[in-house]
Design a protein that fits this description.
The complex is a heterotrimer of chains A (about 625), B (about 290) and C (about 200). Chain A is mainly α. In chain A, about 65% of the residues lie in helices and about 0% in strands. In chain A, helix 4 runs parallel beside helix 7 (about 180-185), helix 4 (about 95-125) packs antiparallel against helix 20 and helix 12 (about 310-340) runs parallel beside helix 15 (about 390-405). The longest helix of chain A has about 35 residues, at about 310-340. In chain B, helix 1 runs antiparallel to helix 2 and helix 2 packs antiparallel against helix 3. Chain B contains five helices and eleven strands; from the N terminus they run αααβββββββββββαα. Chains in contact: A-B, A-C, B-C.
């Protein structure tokens, strides 16, 4: 089977990647100048970003496998078990899903810090009703950078760290189906973040995250960062989607039937379907935008045979499933965690799964509710109003399942459980305000105002980020081997919950009182409310620092080693030792029961693991 | 089995919750109906929106109270009291309850959709026309209504957006172009919203009007002012550097006689300019856009 | 190989069976994703064609490049896919697989070259309206994907050298045939839209 013992001998690490990326960027700029049109300053930058990313990935080691295949060499085993220890493995290309999960977690937390600082700068600027603190140009690029950075983060913040780390453990697999794709889905994220940040050198981009042409066609070179960065995130969504779905379909342990699958895995499954199918549409739209900006095609210019509605339709055909990409794994987390702390079986397992699929399916038929006032054909509006309002039925099902699980439960009030309840409250407000926006007559007033901004912050931050915090307090002990401090955790929850609602609830009123989104200057009558919101936002940022402090305190100062199963949960991921052995399971676990069978007489343990239950130390 | 039988253990909880819910919902609905909802009642369309907002809030309040009450109730009464872990009763689901929940939410949703569509049909808000006679597909629903002065008693006013202000052309008054929007009271107005550079959004807050201004598109919005007074105009779609300052608080709804005086003055003031600007058209194509920093 | 030993399967045959299954699932998922990519382009085609803003979908004197030339590209693409498909079905007849795969590779390279030549000799500029935009974008996106698939095909050819030619390696290669067939089918639809419907 061995064709040749030769292999590439480049030292594969991020340093090599960065060293290669710099000449890669200049090669792209040079090529763009060579072949681009005379007045064209964008081809070079787009090619530069793409070449730099490719060079970075080559330096990381992604070219080895295709080259080795092409030249008929032996395919290099990237995860040599001997290499797979020590801190260094987190800084190299690793095909271990656990390492990728941690890599993702740290990267996303760093990105979250920058996105959060962006939010603080925006709110600081809004302390005054004119643009004296931040000039309008800076304000608009801040808006764009905060928005796109947060979209990058929220697309990946649950699937990346927790999906990659936990899905194989939850389904009884030793690996992912396509470890190289999985690694690629991570390694394109740091370049995407860096490229996005590079927009600041060109004065940012003026369009927010929606990138509406013709403004985005006219905009300066910062817009190229938006295009390439978003395209890389589309790559991450597709590769991660293929990998997750193939893993869940193909690598479930014997006995892990579809009706025994943990709800978190169902959340990842449905979100992966959306990411897999929506991101290519975005990729196509971004290619068109790049062509309009570089070779002067006219996809989006009405004056030359194009239409800006083409972008609006393609973007929101991606964009609306995209927001459910954020929230479906959060639904999964809530339905996963609540039964373990309610000490009851999930109330209506199949109904919950139907709810997830219902949301995923309906999300394809609602995108034009973003265009109600854009001048689309009036006959289409009732359909999109109805389809949007219909989404509240499967979402309501998910609430019912959680409330049914809490009914007559023996709730163990841990920090993850607190965050689950915070999620229910925030997402309820987010969901109800969504109905206001889906109704065409009220949307005329609310569209593009702070009301819609408050709505999606309630669903994304109040929903997804609260679920993320629940997941962090629940699963980080398994992933890092250290318990987080529950005392600081409780302070964190109450602080964050109060600050969050105090920040975003007034924004509904601000929106109703005539304040549009993304403005550097606003009606001076609203200065009082805006100052209240800004002060609350500072407190909200402070609550995130409490979380960071808890991580640092618990990891580095007061090490409270986590036992294998600190929550006494039934599900499979808690039955393996902590830290998780390199191979996850000693042998194939045979799944004999569902994960939520609390209180059922004579319920069997969830799996036959071959005698490693309760063992400590690695394998 | 036992489809409609209530478990003895559930009964006290259910009774308590039902009583709390009815009381709180009644108080809540009465409270939210006291609020005056934007965009108030300066126009017929704005009043419709105002009423719809009140209706949605009145409907949302019991739902909100029900869920929050359930969560808090669980947190208080279904809390574990023993120091060691105990499992709860193994309830796996209840099909009639699930069916009822879905049915109730479906009825509420369909009711909202019907109300929304009815309001939409009666207030007859925005729609766009691309190129008259050629426009098909989603950016054009109707054809040929862009001709000035031809649509019955509706007054035609064109809103032209550009970076970073709005101007208005009165098709029935020789296409005079003004810098503020004045509308006569009690006369239906057909707003034709277009842009000559990039996408803007014309938001006349008190009028209950919001419609995107797209280059090369004639976006139509019907509005009938019913009360005199001033209104604010803002841009509601990010349009570059001075988006936040693209606002005008000098819009006025005035009596017909005041309007006639005002428009005559405008025609006189802008007489010279009116000869220089392009003749009235449903939309204005700019030169092909070029890129710049 | 490290990745493989970390699966449960101890012996090569079981591991190969698992790989084949996963490669099959992955292929179909990829095709679903990629179909949405092309559907976005097709939507752009019909949308801009229907709107015909400023009568600039196809301005005076602008039309499809030579139909015959497009047909050559299409036939080459179909031939590539069918040749490889036939070869890959002969999993137990190593001889045919070894014979047909390089033939498919040559056809694939020819497809890319011919399409590339056409792209340089369009007969219209990219700035001249809706149709030129969609033509260049859609054909360009398609040929880039076809070129990447051809590169993967080349790696399959090198992997089927005398020593590497085992059933273990050929089985995942069989699901690659679906990708080539799919891209050829996309080429067929594109031809119909860009040259016939236009």
């Amino acid at each position: 089977m061995v064709v040749s013992e030769r292999r590439l001998s480049l030292p594969n690490n991020p340093i090599t990647g960065i060293v290669l990326a710099i000449p890669g960027y200049f090669a792209g700029v040079w090529l763009g100048t060579l072949f681009g049109l005379d007045d064209d300053q964008n081809t070079g930058i787009i090619l530069g970003y793409l070449f730099a990313t490719a060079a970075f990935l080559i330096g990381i080691g992604f070219l080895n496998y295709p080259l080795e295949r092409l030249f008929g060499w032996q395919v290099t085993p990237v995860t040599d078990p001997a290499e797979n220890t020590g801190i260094g493995r987190f800084f190299r290309l690793s095909l271990d899903h656990k390492v990728i999960g941690i890599q993702y977690l740290v990267t996303i937390l760093i990105m979250l810090l920058f996105g959060g600082i962006g939010a603080m700068l925006i709110r600081t600027s809004l302390l005054v009703p004119d643009s004296t603190i931040t000039p309008p140009g800076n304000y608009i690029s801040l808006i764009g950078l905060h928005a796109v950075m947060m979209i990058f983060i929220t697309s990946a913040v649950i699937v990346g760290p927790f999906g990659n780390y936990l899905v194989p453990l939850m389904i009884g697999a030793r690996r992912m189906a396509f470890p190289r794709l999985e690694a690629l889905s991570f390694w394109v994220v740091p370049p995407a973040a860096v490229i996005l940040a590079a927009a600041t050198f060109w004065g940012g981009f003026p369009t927010g995250w929606t990138g509406y042409p013709p403004l985005s066609v006219q905009a300066g070179q910062g817009m190229d960062s938006y295009i390439v960065g978003f395209a890389l995130i589309a790559v991450a969504l597709v590769t991660s989607g293929i990998n997750m779905l193939a893993t869940i379909i193909g690598l479930r342990a014997p006995g892990m039937t579809w009706t025994r699958l943990p709800m978190f895995v169902w959340g990842i499954f449905t979100t992966s379907i959306l990411g897999l199918l929506a991101a290519p549409v975005l990729a196509a739209a971004l290619i068109m935008l790049a062509m309009d900006r570089t070779v002067n095609t006219s996809f989006f210019l009405a004056s030359n045979g194009g239409s800006n509605y083409l972008w609006e339709n393609l973007f929101w055909f991606f964009g609306h499933p995209e927001v459910y990409i954020f929230i479906l794994p959060a639904f999964g987390i809530i339905m996963e965690i609540v039964p373990h702390f309610a000490r009851k079986p999930l109330w209506g397992y199949r109904t919950g799964v139907v709810g997830l699929f219902g949301v995923a399916l309906l999300s394809w038929f609602v995108w034009q509710h973003h265009l109600f006032v854009s001048g689309i054909a009036p006959v289409l509006r009732p359909f999109y109003m109805l389809s949007t309002e219909l989404i509240s039925i499967p979402t309501g099902i998910i609430f019912l399942v959680v409330l049914g699980t809490l009914w007559r439960a023996r709730v163990w009030f841990t920090v993850p459980m607190l965050f689950c309840m915070g999620f229910l409250f925030n997402f309820l407000i987010g969901g109800i305000s969504g109905v206001y926006l889906s109704d065409v007559p009220t949307d005329v007033t609310l569209h593009g105002s702070y009301f819609s901004m408050a709505h999606f912050h309630y669903t994304i931050m109040g929903g997804e980020i609260f679920a993320l915090m629940a997941a962090a307090y629940y699963w980080l002990p398994k992933m890092t081997g250290k318990m987080l401090s529950p005392t600081i955790g409780r302070i964190h929850f109450w602080w964050m919950f109060i600050a969050f609602n105090s920040t975003f609830f007034p924004l509904f009123i601000v929106g109703l009182l005539n304040m549009p989104r993304r403005v550097a200057a606003y009606n001076p009558d609203l200065v009082g409310l805006n100052r209240w919101v800004t002060i609350s936002a500072y407190f909200l940022f402070g609550s995130m620092l409490v979380f960071a402090g808890n991580l640092i305190y618990s990891w580095f100062f007061v090490a409270r080693p986590a036992v294998a199963n600190p929550w006494h949960a039934r599900s499979l991921e808690w039955q393996v030792p902590t830290p998780v052995p390199a191979a996850n399971f000693d042998r194939v676990p045979v799944i004999v029961a569902g994960p939520y069978e609390y209180g059922i007489p004579n319920a069997r343990p969830v799996a036959d693991l071959g005698g490693i239950v309760g063992a400590t130390g690695g394998g | 089995m036992g489809a409609f039988r209530i478990d003895e253990a559930d009964r006290p909880h259910l009774v308590r919750l039902l009583v709390i819910w009815i009381v709180l919902s009644a108080i809540g609905v009465l409270a939210v109906l006291q609020i005056h909802y934007p965009p108030y009642d300066q126009t017929v369309q704005g009043q419709d929106q105002s009423r719809t907002l009140a209706l949605l809030t009145a409907l949302a309040t019991p739902v909100f109270i029900a869920v929050v009450m359930m969560v808090l109730y669980s947190a208080v009464f279904f809390r574990r009291t023993t120091p060691e872990l105990v499992d709860g009763p193994p309830m796996l689901g209840n099909t009639p309850v699930q069916i009822a929940w879905v049915a109730i939410s479906a009825i509420v949703v369909l009711f909202l959709a019907v109300v929304g569509i009815a309001t939409l049909a009666s207030s007859n808000v925005a729609h766009a026309v691309g190129q008259p006679g050629r426009a098909i597909g989603q950016a054009g629903g109707q054809t040929g209504s862009g001709t000035p002065g031809g649509a019955g008693s509706e007054m035609q006013v064109q809103v032209i957006a550009q970076q970073w202000y709005f101007t208005y052309r009165y098709a029935d008054y020789g296409g005079v172009e003004t810098t503020h929007l004045y509308l006569p009271v009690d006369r239906p107005v057909e707003l034709h919203i277009t842009s000559i550079d990039i996408i803007h959004s014309f938001w006349a807050y008190q009028l209950g009007v919001k419609a995107d201004a797209n280059p090369g598109v004639d976006n139509i919005f019907h509005v009938t002012p019913q009360k005199t007074g001033s209104f604010q105009v803002r841009c509601a779609e990010l349009c570059g550097l001075w988006h936040g300052n693209m606002a005008d608080s000098e819009g006025q709804v005035v009596s017909q006689s005041a309007f006639d005086i005002w428009i005559a003055q405008q025609q006189k003031d802008f007489e010279v300019i009116s000869k220089a600007v392009p003749s009235y058209a449903p939309y204005y194509f700019p030169e092909p856009l070029i890129k710049g920093g | 190989m490290a990745v493989r030993t970390r699966a449960y399967e101890a012996d090569a045959a079981a591991a190969a069976a698992l790989d084949t299954r996963l490669a099959g699932i992955g292929t179909w998922l990829f095709l679903a994703a990629d179909l949405f990519f092309f559907v976005a382009w097709w939507f752009a085609f019909f949308y801009l064609r229907a709107l015909n803003n400023h009568q600039d979908w196809k301005a005076q004197g602008i039309g499809p490049p030579s139909k015959g030339y497009g047909a050559i590209v299409l036939v080459l693409a179909l031939a590539t896919a069918i040749t490889y498909f036939l070869g890959s079905r002969q999993a137990t007849m190593a001889f045919l697989f070894r014979l047909l795969t390089p033939v498919a590779l040559v056809l694939g390279i020819a497809t890319c070259l011919f399409q590339g030549y056409e792209m340089w000799h369009l007969g219209f500029g990219l700035t001249e309206g809706g149709y030129p935009s969609v033509f260049s974008g859609l054909s360009g996106a398609w040929v880039i994907q076809f070129a990447l698939a051809t590169a993967w095909l080349a790696s399959i050819v090198t992997q089927t050298g005398p020593a590497g030619d085992t059933i273990v390696r050929r089985q995942p290669a069989a699901s690659f045939a679906w990708i080539l067939l799919y891209l050829a089918a996309i080429g067929l639809v594109n031809y119909f839209l860009l040259y016939v419907v236009a």
